[in-house]
Amino acid sequence: RYAINLNVRGIQPSSTLRINELSNQLKAEGKDIIKLGLGQSPFPVPERVVEALQKHAHEKDYLPVKGLKGLRESIAGYINRSERMRCTWEDVLIGPGSKELLFLLQLAYYGDLLIPRPSWVSYAPQARIIGRSVHWLPTHAENNWQLTAEELDIICRDDPSRPRILILNYPSNPTGCTYTDDQLLAIANVARKYKLILLSDEIYGEVHFEGKHKSIARYYPEGTIISTGLSKWAGAGGWRLGTFIFPSELRPLLDAMAIIASETFTSTSAPIQYAAIAAFNGGADIDDYLVQSRRVLKVIGEYMHRRLTSMGAVVQKPEGAFYLFPEFSSFREGLAKRDIKTSQALCTALLENTGVAILPASDFGFAPDHLGARLAFVDFDGGEALALAGGDYAGC
Ligand code: PLP
């Protein structure tokens, strides 16, 4: 006899991982599947980073819980160089993926979770597993799916001293949209007014198509934690390395997370931490890799945007990351005749009838009948694309 924790009942395994397994299974059965479900970087890990991993393959020791000092220094250097926040190595925490660190944060901090709708698939289930309340903040397609300072204020003024975490992810999974400086400043001012903990999920911070990625930490340094990692800009999602960078004011939270880490995963594996030093130290080769990968993703994102728009879908042009979040409301009547009334039914029918795997809007916080979906435009040979982008790219 056993009982499953009530918080876990009714939660499905993460939809991105499920769609990936299903697509792989269908492919193995010989079906022609276009994998636009899982948001995995299509690019190979930069060569120098792979070499660093190989060089340290024999390192077998448990590392310090908060991470290797050399890696924490390297990440502090990276964050200072990119002018996101002023920090030292002691402000940096390493973990096996930013997803795991986010879970630790929610375990360590007592408070409600505020997230814009739509948001990445794992924020809300993590909060539910821990038993925290989730408040979805409305955003709208015609506003580029950007949270406004006003919407945030409306939620917070209700109970101004309630402890809360706001997660802001930009460039965004699932919309590909990002924020202007002015918008970040306005949101930061509200966050300060209500003393929110602001988790700035910048895992796609290097994957922006125009200009320079800027962090909201510039405007709310005392309350912002930056989240990033190797998964999206260095192609190493499966290696599992993420990092949080804290302001010194929130050091007790870092320490509390490290206590939980010490009683759970202990530390991230050594070879990967050494490899991450090479990635975060950067250099001309990494800069080239980033320039070329942004170039490739921009071209594909714009192409997909044109195609979807010409079909009649409503969709924002991506400004970063590798996602599009189209709405198919104009097809509602035709789809209803085929008994397709939910985004989940739409995605199932697409996979069965065309072999295209995408994720329903319901996985990102919308009601089942919101006819939208997320496309991850990553089903191409990233190595070949980088070679093309670096070479005779004209008109790719
Ligand atoms: N945050 C966002 C918005 C993501 O899309 C992902 C991965 O898909 C993550 C965090 C987690 O990344 P990782 O755990 O690989 O660092």
From TrEMBL:
Signal peptide: none annotated. Residues 31-368 form the Aminotransferase class I/classII large domain. The keyword Transferase applies. It comes from the Bacteria. InterPro entries: Aminotransferase_I/II_large (IPR004839), AspAT/PAT-like (IPR050596), NHTrfase_class1_PyrdxlP-BS (IPR004838), PyrdxlP-dep_Trfase (IPR015424), PyrdxlP-dep_Trfase_major (IPR015421), PyrdxlP-dep_Trfase_small (IPR015422). The keyword Transferase applies. Its EC number is 2.6.1.-. SUPFAM superfamilies: PLP-dependent transferases. One of its GO terms (molecular function) is transaminase activity. Keywords: Aminotransferase, Pyridoxal phosphate, Transferase. Pfam families: Aminotran_1_2. Its cofactor is pyridoxal 5'-phosphate. Belongs to the class-I pyridoxal-phosphate-dependent aminotransferase family. This is Aminotransferase. It comes from Marinobacter qingdaonensis. The lineage of its organism: Bacteria, Pseudomonadati, Pseudomonadota, Gammaproteobacteria, Pseudomonadales.
